[in-house]
Amino acid sequence: MARKNAFYAQSGGVTAVINASACGVIETARQHKDKIGKVYAGRNGIIGALTEDLIDTSKDSAQAIAALRYTPSGAFGSCRFKLKGLEENRIQYERLIEVFKAHNIGYFFYNGGGDSADTCLKVSQLADKMGYPIQAIHVPKTVDNDLPITDCCPGFGSVAKYIAVSVREASFDVASMAKTSTKVFVAEVMGRHAGWIAAAGGLASDKNCELPIVILFPEIPFNKEQFLAKVDGMVKQYGYCSVVVSEGVKGEDGKFLSDQGLRDAFGHAQLGGVAPVVANIVREALGYKYHWAVADYLQRAARHIASRTDVDQAYALGKAAVELALKGQNAVMPAIVRVSGKPYKWKIGVAQLKEVANVEKMMPRDFITKDGFGITEKCRAYLAPLIKGEDYPPFKDGLPQYVRLKNAAVPRKLGEFKV
Fold it and tell me: Which of 127, 144, 329, 379 could be bridged to 367 by S-S, CB 3.0 to 4.6 A?
């Protein structure tokens, strides 16, 4: 059988461990040189395929590829771009086939979240709809942890660890200053519709380190009076409190508290700035001095404190994607299956992309306390193993040493194409 080349690309918001999945894909493909030729990466995601802007990963050494496991963000560049349906934009699909044919590409690995799963599913249908055989495998990734079927999503465990650690440390700070200064600290975290990251803030408090923490979830409509009563009660009991608010929190009218009226490339509301809104509500009603912070990119780029579980799973899923392709699979996604909670054990399963694409997994109601401001023990049991273990990158002169690949361009064979 003639060897086909592989195409790999990263999509959507990057994470602390997406490059670990890239490492898993590339290293595994290199171990199967009898079946897979070169691995070409798309510069800036699927756009790299459409514009024939490909990267030849074979130009990077084994040591450089191995170092991806310790390097945050997207080594090849990512994008927010969703392919339309075949009927809506046949030109784009014809272009993909042109590029795939020109570079002998028979394997397609797309590393991203729900919208990326949809793109991968559409590419997988090229064989049936347009007569070009290609095996498309989705490699899961999203800090939001909102993909269905898989127990958890690579990227989430490390964000959860960062938020849990940050909320604990900030709470110690507020406790120190509460007598004469700040009494309320508000931390804004990512999470458009699902409150998984906000829930991780609840891990900051446990039986050995009890802290007053209020969590605002997207799944629970924001009730101003109940929220203020909760904050006031905690400040009176403990002297201070920390509030963890998801960017996607909505009022009882269904509108985002932080909706700026802007839209991203996918048409989603561009959120951000809910922390000062919440902090101001506290100041106006209760008069407490406050501080607020937005974790933003810091939470998803924090490879220095990544979860070992998360890194291991990210790599394993990249490896599994290649193995599934070699077995002839198409339109599937390797997924994490939780075998047991105590002790925590997991394995790789397989999900059909038609069951993954455009489906969001929200926080179950029984993961949130009855008052809507905290996490239950069931939620804690789910979250705790995902932040376990440390996997520090190598350090030099006090700073982590991250790799920057050559990202050597593959010579173009076709004309220009505008996206």
Answer: 379
pLDDT one-digit tens code per residue, 1-35? 579 999 999 999 999 999 999 999 999 999 999 99
Name the CATH architecture for the domain at 156-300+366-387: 3-Layer(aba) Sandwich (3.40)
Region 156-176: mean pLDDT is 98
Distances (CA, A) of 215 to 204, 232, 364, 375, 384: 12, 14, 15, 8, 17
The model's pLDDT over 69-120, given as tens digits with 9 standing for 90+, comes to: 999 999 999 999 888 887 888 899 999 999 999 999 999 999 999 989 999 9
Q: 4-142+305-358+392-400 — its CATH code? A: 3.40.50.450
**Known catalytic residue at 144:** yes
Query: What b/e string do you get for 309-322 counting C-beta neighbours within 10 Å, with b at 16 or more?
Result: bbbbbbbbbbbbbb
Cα separation, 68 vs 152, in Å, equals: 21
Structural domain spans, the chain: 4-142+305-358+392-400, 156-300+366-387
Which one from 53, 56, 115, 144 is the annotated catalytic residue? Answer: 144
